[in-house]
């Protein structure tokens, strides 16, 4: 496992190789100040200051080489601008010339993530360490990178090893490490108290039995915040079975649970002054003689009845019960994460989580936080005009829209039925997967929206730094 604390360290004047940053505007002037040897090396390499392009600059002796890399804007560094260097340069220490890395520290560390748990021979690589004099920024950035790595690890793990019981063990580790209280409901108690979670997971093998996992943490006098995650450890589609191509990546259908567990750990480890309630609705949507069926009517924890139009629309069912439970504690804010709909991916692609919110201020805060952390979101409408698509003849609502249109919106409208009136709520329909690698962002499990949500929570609830500044 990568020790991220080794990847960014305080700059105490140690020997380190220099990284020169250039962009298209500054490159020509920068080049004039380089030695004849360096200019010749760049010309021989046909170097152009395009995005992520880098080159090695020879020094006076073989050991004194440095690096030049192109960024979009030398005056405003993104999280990803030097992330490629963290994967391609030789191990050793590096510092940026004449500036601090700021949020570029995140990409530098993030790019050095590896998931090789199932390889017979793991690649042995020494760390590429970035130096900074902004010592106070190191620990918070390392915490965010570790949270992202946790999401990646959980999502990348095959479903055989990442069932509801494993999600429970992860929650148990987090709760024990930070003084939280763990509660797990399963078996008959789950069937009676959370009938939709039970129905979705009852066809799975006993060792993958469904459960509701809860962590309570914090002081009663602090604002109550609930984080709710969809934890479908594998989604076959149920009796409305998916085709093979649609089932291949369904180990990632617990990506919402991975996000809220990582976010909960950030909250607890930082001591954020909130009363946290983290809930994971964990189940495997399997097929057996006991599987729930199209046309069944399920009673929910909230008391609403739901007609099953499609057993592959199971995520909203387990979330419905979990959201109802979250609302019983009267939180001032509920945030849920779910790999909920293919419709969101058709609309926004893999990189942009669809954000739904019943409060404009919350939505604006999340969008701003996503921009600040280079973790972008796109707000989608909770359009009440589509609620009629969830109507059914024999129950309070259906779990699948009566039209192929607006699939992500109708899913969000379904969830909204389980949110208490006047409770502020945000829903992330996220992909939790990166189909192709980008600098700092390897192919595979991905935390999409996690850092935006964390930044929003910090901005809303962490007044400690503001008090000190005042």
Would you kindly provide a written description of the structure presented here, covering whatever features stand out?
The chain has 470 residues and is of the alpha/beta class. It has 2 domains: 130 residues, 3-Layer(aba) Sandwich (Leucine Aminopeptidase, subunit E, domain 1); 328 residues, 3-Layer(aba) Sandwich (Aminopeptidase). The protein has 16 helices and 19 strands. The strands form 4 sheets. Strands 7-8-10-9-13-17-14-15 form an 8-stranded mixed sheet, with helices on both faces. A 6-stranded mixed sheet has the order 1-6-5-2-4-3. The protein has a 3-stranded mixed sheet with strand order 11-12-16. α8 runs antiparallel to α11. 46% of the residues are buried. It holds the Pfam family Peptidase_M17_N_1. This is Leucyl aminopeptidase family protein.
CATH class of the largest domain: Alpha Beta
Radius of gyration: 24 Å
CATH topology label of the largest domain: Aminopeptidase
Question: What structural class results from the helix and strand content?
Answer: alpha/beta
Structural shape: elongated
Poorly predicted runs of 5 or more residues: none
Strand order of the largest sheet: 7-8-10-9-13-17-14-15
Overall tally of structural domains: 2
The largest β sheet comes out as:
8 strands, mixed
- Name the CATH superfamily classification of the largest domain: Zn peptidases
How many E-type strands? 19
Strand content: 15-25%
Mean pLDDT: 95
In DSSP terms (H or I, runs of 4 or more residues), the helix count works out at: 16
């Amino acid at each position: 496992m990568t020790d991220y604390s080794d990847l960014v360290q305080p700059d105490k004047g140690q020997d380190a190789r220099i990284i020169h940053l250039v962009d298209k505007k500054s490159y020509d002037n920068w080049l004039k100040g380089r030695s004849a040897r360096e200019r010749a090396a760049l010309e021989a390499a046909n170097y152009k200051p395009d995005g992520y392009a880098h080159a090695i600059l020879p020094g006076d002796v073989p050991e004194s080489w440095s690096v030049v890399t192109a960024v979009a804007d030398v005056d405003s560094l993104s999280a990803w601008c030097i992330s490629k260097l963290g994967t391609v340069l030789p191990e050793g220490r590096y510092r940026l010339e004449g500036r601090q890395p700021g949020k570029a520290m995140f990409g530098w560390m993030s790019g050095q993530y590896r998931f090789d748990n199932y390889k017979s021979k793991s690649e042995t690589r020494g760390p590429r360490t970035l130096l900074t004099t902004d010592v106070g920024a190191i620990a918070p950035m390392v915490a965010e990178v570790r949270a992202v790595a946790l999401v990646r690890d959980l999502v990348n793990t095959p479903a055989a090893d990442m069932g509801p019981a494993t999600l429970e063990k992860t929650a148990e580790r987090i709760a024990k490490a930070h003084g939280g209280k763990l509660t797990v409901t399963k078996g008959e108690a789950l069937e009676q108290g959370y009938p939709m979670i039970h129905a979705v997971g009852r066809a799975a093998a006993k060792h993958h039995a469904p459960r509701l996992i809860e962590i309570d943490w914090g002081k009663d006098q602090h604002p109550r915040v609930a984080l709710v995650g969809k934890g479908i450890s594998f989604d076959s589609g149920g009796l409305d079975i998916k085709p093979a191509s649609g089932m291949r990546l369904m180990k990632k259908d617990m990506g919402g649970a991975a996000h809220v567990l990582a976010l909960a750990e950030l909250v607890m480890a930082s001591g954020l002054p909130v009363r946290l309630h983290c809930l994971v609705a964990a189940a495997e949507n399997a097929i057996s003689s006991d599987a729930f069926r199209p046309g069944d009517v399920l009673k929910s924890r909230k008391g609403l009845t739901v007609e099953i139009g499609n057993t592959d629309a199971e995520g909203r069912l387990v979330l419905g019960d979990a959201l109802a439970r979250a609302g019983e504690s009267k939180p001032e804010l509920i945030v849920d994460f779910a790999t909920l709909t293919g419709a969101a991916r058709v609309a926004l692609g893999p990189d942009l989580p669809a954000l739904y919110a019943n409060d404009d201020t919350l939505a604006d805060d999340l969008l701003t936080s996503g921009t600040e952390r280079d973790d972008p979101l796109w707000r989608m409408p909770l359009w009440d005009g589509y609620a009629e698509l969830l109507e059914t003849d024999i129950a309070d609502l259906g779990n699948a829209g009566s039209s192929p249109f607006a699939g992500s919106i109708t899913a969000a409208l379904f969830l909204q039925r389980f949110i208490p009136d006047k409770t502020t709520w945000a829903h992330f329909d996220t992909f939790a997967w990166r189909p192709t690698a980008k600098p700092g962002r390897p192919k595979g499990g991905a935390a999409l929206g996690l850092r935006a949500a964390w930044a929003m929570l910090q901005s809303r609830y962490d007044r400690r730094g503001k008090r000190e500044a005042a």
